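hey m, so remember when u said the tokens were messed up on ur end? i reran from scratch. heres the input so u can diff it against urs
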Amino acid sequence: MRKIWDTTLFNQIMEDKIQEAVEETMEIISESELYEDKPTGMKKVVRRGCFETNSSSMHSILITKNDTHVTNRDLTADYNDADYNQQEHIYVDDSGEIWLYGVDDGFGRYPFKFLTSFEQKLMYAMCEFLGSKYEDDDDYDEIYQQFIDITKELIPNFERFDIKKKDLDIYVDADGNELKHRQLKYDHWDHKNRRSVYTYTAPDGTEKLATLSDEVYEVPDIGMIDHQSAGLLKNFLKEKNISLKEFLTNKRYVVVIDGDEICEFDNMINNNLLNKDFIETIYTTSDDDIKYEEWLKEQENG
């Protein structure tokens, strides 16, 4: 049985907090410089001096000149080795399990970081390809297996990932048959029971309410990529004709996690904290692939 808690006071407090946040946000927006996007008529907030999209997150992929591949030794070097600190060591326990710490958090606009290692890029790719999918999707297991196969090829004694689990609600139709999550359509929020209500399309074409089952699935808790940067990696691999394995194992590909509130990557380049000759291309969106030299000229002329 699902227990319904008395959340009246809590709800009131949260509504007050949300209202305060909305008012503060609207005040900030009203003081910002706005421009009109001609094709769509959409208003955007402009922040000066940032290499950005119209989003909160600003993920990008760097193609560097470090065209070398991670090896088994890189991932499994013993700490007694003289060059241990230079390796990308991944801990595999006696049962062949690798703990992917933080994959459940996903990747948003902060904290700012460079994803350079096999393990970091592995988690980012998992969130890109699996974070927005449901575990009952037909191709979920196939995609998940790709990550296992690539990792096992590099680390032969690897068997499985240790990922935090979450409960996935199960919904059924009027006859008690389990519905796939792709079949569900959001209908409204049930304030009394504090949950979303979904409908589904019956065989006769009518919309009916889906029933929440008392049972749940225990599934891997894989986070998502922030919606403004989701799809970046998929588009990159497709347009550059790069395999998932090549992206994960080649050290020349680096993912930058940043947000347009801080623009740390932009600041690092403008303050000469990066080796500019080491960067070949900065890939930002599916239709915005610019050479570093071109962007640098834009910054100088801006």
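this time it looks ok to me. The longest helix spans residues 8-31. if urs says something different then somethings off w ur setup not the seq
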